Amino acid sequence: MLKLIRYFKGKSLILAILAPLFMVLEVLMDLQQPTLMSDIVDIGIANGDLGYVLATGGRMLLCSFFGVVGGVGCCVFSGIAAISMSRDLRNDVFGQIQTYSFREIDQFKTSSLITRLTNDITQVQNLFIMIMRMMVRAPMTCIGGVVMAISISPRLSLILAVAMPVMLIVMFFITSRAFPLFRVVQEKIDNMNNVMRENLLGIRVTKAFVSEPRQLERFEAANDDLMNTAVRASRITVILWPIINVVVNGCTIAVFWFGGNMFMNGEMEIGKIMAFINYLTQILASLTMSVMFIMSFSRAKVSADRINEVLNTNSSITDITAPEKVGGTDIEFRNVSFRYHESSDYVLRNISFHIKEGESIGIIGATGSGKSSLVNLIPRLYDPSEGEILLGGKNLKDLELRDLRAAIGMVLQESILFSGKIREILSFGKADITDEEMEIAAADAQALDFIREKEDAFDGIVEQRGKNFSGGQKQRLSIARTLARRPKILILDDSTSAVDLATEAKLQAAIKKRMGDCTLIIIAQRISAVMDLDRVFVIDDGKLVDVGNHRELLKSSDIYRSIAVSQLGEEVLING
User: Of all residues in the chain, what percent are helix, strand and coil, respectively (each to 5)?
Assistant: First the structure.
């Protein structure tokens, strides 16, 4: 929690200092009120001195005014300070997530990161607001009340010596039981968010399979699980309030009993008894506030730990101290093996090959054979578990990460389009792109026609995840976005699966013409997408089993030949 205090800076730091000072003003004014009221009763009313009553009443009103100023000032300043802090914290957490490799994203899971960016930071924000308010008010009121109560009657103050330890023991017992449950509550929120996110992203699949009742059952199960855990935590904290009421009411009865006897014996005035009861109420109320703070702290501490976990987790893929710039673009794999986690199976095993600069390569194989995992290693989205990868004769780990990825254009399997204008989509990788370059990239990606059909053309709106475009249109926009960067290496990861064969042929011809000496790597399920490339790699069960051009593989590779026959028919063996 202390690590997050550094996010109070500049204006928020000044306000965070002013808020407790205003709270000090409110507490000092509140502590004056019982004594002034006692004076009115014991001096003004007892002596029939109306002038004294009015004068002292005026002082009480003045104290109330300054108390209101202090309370309002503390609320306003603490709120602004905490909200500003949470804004900066949220920016840093989001920025840290942007530095993560795919391995860290897989480790935390998207739903958990969303919870940490929203719910967890809100919990911390609310705690800091409470700190600036309650954690000044509670101890000052408690200490000030005890001092004032002792000054009124040391004998009656013995009641506090019994009540306060009881309250402290109860506080310790409840918080020690509730704290572990708050971590579980946050984990249950993660799980519910995960179910909700999956359902929202896959809503079309849900409706296509008429599976709404099943999805509702999944969500209700996760929601009920969260509710049950939250209820268990709340059930423990609820025990606190009856105990507090018993202690407060018991102390009040004790004061009336012993104070009444002291009044009857002439040892204490009625006004001082009233003031003592007020101070007693303030002391016990401050202890109650402390309990509320501790409960909030218990939950916020869990959230702070989860936030710090994100901030303290560095990407497993980083630059070395003095990275080199990208030179040549020939690619070499040397005995590369890869697995996603230490406990998981290898998805790539002992792969070695060399791709010359400007060469066009196809990668084909069964689903799950490791094709996408292989190309994800080239821009260092993951690092290999064993072996090394070289680009231009230099190990990828020796190259500057930003420079490496700037040299590589990659169109992933899933076409992700951010909301905005088509113009913003195409300029995503090149902020200074001209209208002419935009049109050329769209034309080469076979996207220019349907863009021009839009009412606003390149200023047309792209809705969230590109849902106002078809699958083929989204793929072509994704390709245009990548072509606009003019990368030295272009990787198409099964990115034309939703495009018809005629459009795919035009697209590949345009890419070859546009890219010139660019190294081209195409992952495809269709033989037609790779048969005209320089070489084709056949991947099976994480191993590179065959390499050659289309004609060579028809003769030498059983896997390639079976795929070709299944897609193009037996005549492919005759025609080559």
Answer: 65, 10, 25
The structure's pTM equals 0.74
Which element (helix H / strand E) includes 535?
Answer: strand 535-540
Helices (H), 109-239: 110-115, 121-152, 158-201, 203-208, 212-238
Is the distance from CB of 250 to CB of 160 less than 8 angstroms? Answer: no
Cβ 289 vs Cβ 264: under 8 Å: no
Q: How far is CA 541 from CA 385, 446, 500, in A?
A: 17, 34, 28
- Residues whose CB is less than 8 angstroms from the CB of residue 423 and which lie 6 or more positions away in sequence, other chains included: 438, 458, 459
Task: Return all residues near 491 (Cβ < 8 A) that are at least 6 apart.
Answer: 375, 378, 379, 408, 409, 410, 411, 521, 522, 523
What is residue 392's DSSP assignment?
Answer: T
Buried b (16+ CB within 10 A) or exposed e, 522-533: bbbbbbebbbeb
Q: Is 233 helix (H, G, I), strand (E, B) or coil?
A: helix
Cα dihedral across residues 37, 41, 43, 48: positive or negative: positive
Q: Phi first, then psi: what are they for 539, rounded to 5°?
A: -105, 135
**Whole-angstrom distance, CA of residue 186 vs CA of residue 17:** 31
Identify each DSSP E strand in 234-385 by its residue range. Answer: 331-338, 348-355, 360-365
Q: Say whether 499 sits in a helix, a strand or coil.
A: coil
Are the C-beta atoms of residues 568 and 397 closer than 8 Å to each other? no
Helix/strand/coil (H/E/C) assignment for every residue in 338-365:
ECCCCCCCCCEEEEEEEECCCCEEEEEE
Alpha-carbon dihedral sign for residues 507, 509, 513, 516: positive
**pLDDT (tens place) for every residue of the chain, 576 residues total:** 677 888 888 888 899 889 988 988 888 888 888 888 888 877 877 777 788 888 888 888 998 899 899 989 998 999 999 999 999 999 999 989 888 888 888 888 777 888 888 888 998 998 898 888 887 788 888 888 888 888 888 888 888 788 778 877 877 777 777 777 777 887 788 788 778 777 777 776 777 767 778 888 888 888 888 888 888 877 777 777 777 778 778 888 888 888 888 878 777 777 788 888 888 888 877 877 777 777 777 778 888 888 888 899 888 888 888 888 888 889 999 999 999 888 788 999 999 999 998 898 999 988 888 888 999 999 998 899 999 999 988 999 999 988 998 889 888 877 788 888 888 888 887 788 888 888 888 888 888 888 888 878 888 888 877 778 888 888 888 888 888 888 889 998 888 777 777 887 888 888 877 777 788 999 988 888 888 888 999 999 899 999 998 888 888 888 888 888 887 776 666 555
